[in-house]
Every structure is written in structure tokens, then in C-alpha cells.
Amino acid sequence: MEWIGLPLSFGLALLIVPAGVRGLAEAGLVRGNYRGSRLAFPLGAILATAALVALAPLAFLNDRADLDLLDPGLRHWITYVLGIAFLGFLDDSLGQGMQAGAPRGWRGHARALREGRLSTGAIKAIGALALAAYVVSGRGLESFEYLADVALLILATNLFNLIDLRPGRAEKALVLLGLGLCIGAWTAEPVDLLGIFVGPVLVGAWFTLRERAILGDTGSNLVGAIGGVWLLTTLDETGRLIALAIVAGLTVYGELRSISKAVETLPPLRSLDSLGRVND
User: Fold this and answer.
1) pLDDT over 90 for what percent of the chain?
2) Which helix (H) or strand (E) holds 147?
3) Residue 48 above 50 pLDDT?
4) Lowest mean pLDDT among 107-116, 141-150, 153-162
5) CA 124 to CA 19: how far, in whole Å?
6) What does the alpha-carbon distance between residue 69 and residue 171 come to, in Å, rounded to a whole number?
7) What is the rounded distance in angstroms from the CA atom of residue 197 to the CA atom of residue 213?
């Protein structure tokens, strides 16, 4: 019954997320999107909260009633998902990433470090590396496999941050990844493992697609962490190496070129990207 985390978290998110979006807006926690509209921000903090609310009854029943409601691996991977979301929230809260002249991308943050400046993006990168190194350890991997899995987890997480430049894009990418992994490996393990986070992300997509809220780094980090953990826990060694090569290639492209322009150039991607948006 581990799959129950998804419908339960989805149902609770239907109650929590709308109230959270209103609360952010009423508190003046807003930020301009790519159109210049001022939207509730960061939605990712509300999504993480909704997941934790769903976790409470599941954890209690799993322990007290001896029910099989939570995947045993969740206890391990939740450290990474919530830790990465917190690092994104730190970046959102300090707001340095939105200031004029602030370093952007890995090259910008590396340059800032060489100049003796520690940007919030650099703090996020260092924290992500530490979290990934921690959660990947203890799995009995050889040195090369260990380093490759750490790199895959970090780069996959960052990739979702790179593509989150239009409403709903990161959430759609996560759904496609989840479907591909479940069908390709013929398993429900991704849903079983992190279903409590997927439910709120699906509900949150309604608000981002309708331009009522912005995920922020908190949300894109949360979505990226889910995707990274899915790749790491579903694929075998060969599959993970192939995924690492693909993710690394897309990351380099995203750092050097515009992913949004690439999406707009290809009609199938453009149609999928605009699907569900009220202003497209």
C-alpha cells in the first residue's frame, strides 16, 4: 500500500496549496515572472509543507498500526529532497539571485568565488554537493560508481532549475520522467518512494500554469531532487551512466545557450510546453 502516499498527499494539497498561495500573496510575498506579473512566491515552500503534512499520518500509521504505507527508502532520500528544497528557500529568501549584476549559472558563481564573493547560488551548490555525497554513500559502490551517482544526482537536480523558466515546465518534465521510468522499468517504485512529494507538485502545477504562483528555487529544487532520486533508484548502473551523459549534455547546453529558445524552435516541444497555460 506504499502507493497511497500519492493520493493522500494530492488530496491534502488540494486543501493546503490554495490557502498557501493566498497567504503568500496577502503577506506581500510576491515576485515578478517572465511577463512581469507579480505572483505568489515561493510556491515551493507550500509544496514542501503539504508533503510534510501528508507524511505525519502515514508515518504514525506505518509505525503504530504496522501498516506498509511508506517505502523504507523514503527515510534515507527525504534528507536530500528536503535539504535541497531548504537550500533553494535560502536562495529565494535572500533574493540575491534576482539582484542586478548578481552572478548567474555555474560559471558566474565560480567567478564570484575566485573574486572572494560567496553568492547564494554558490552556497546552494556547495550544500547540494554535500547532501548528494552523504545520501549516495553507504550503498557499497566502487569509487567511480559513487562519484558518477553523486554527479548524476546533483546535475539532475540542477537541470530542473535550469528549465524552470516558464510556468509548468519543470512539473511537466518531472511527469514525463516519472512515466518514462515507470513504463521503461515496468515498476511503480518512483511513485511508491516519493509519492508524498509528487501529489503537492501536481496540485501546484495548476497554480503555476495559470500564473498565480511561482515555484521559486525552493520549488524547482524540490522537483529536481525528486527527479534525481528517481533516476538514481530506478536505473541500473548502465542506465545511470547513460542518464548522466544526457543530463550533463543538457546542463552544458543550458549554461551556454537558451533552453527556452530551443523549446520554441521545435514545434512538438513548443506545443507540449504551452499545454495548459492560460496565456499561451
Assistant:
1) 71
2) helix 143-163
3) yes
4) 107-116
5) 28
6) 25
7) 18
C-alpha cell at 166: 516558464
User: What is the residue type of 48?
Assistant: A
Grid cell 502545477 — which residue? 205
d(Cα 181, Cα 184) in Å, to the nearest integer?
5
Cis peptide, bond prior to residue 18, ω within 30 of zero: no
Residue 24, Cα to own-chain centre: how many angstroms?
Answer: 20
Whole-structure pTM value: 0.92
List CB contacts of 13: < 8 A, sequence separation 6 or more: 47, 50, 54, 199, 200, 202, 203, 204
DSSP string spanning 79-136? HHHHHHHHHHHHHHHH-GGGSTT---HHHHHHHHHHTT---HHHHHHHHHHHHHHHHH
C-alpha cell at 119: 553568492
As a whole number of angstroms, the distance between CA 39 and CA 121 comes to 22
Q: Which of 82-96, 114-128, 135-149, 215-229 has the highest mean pLDDT?
A: 215-229
Question: How many whole angstroms separate alpha carbon 192 and alpha carbon 126?
Answer: 29
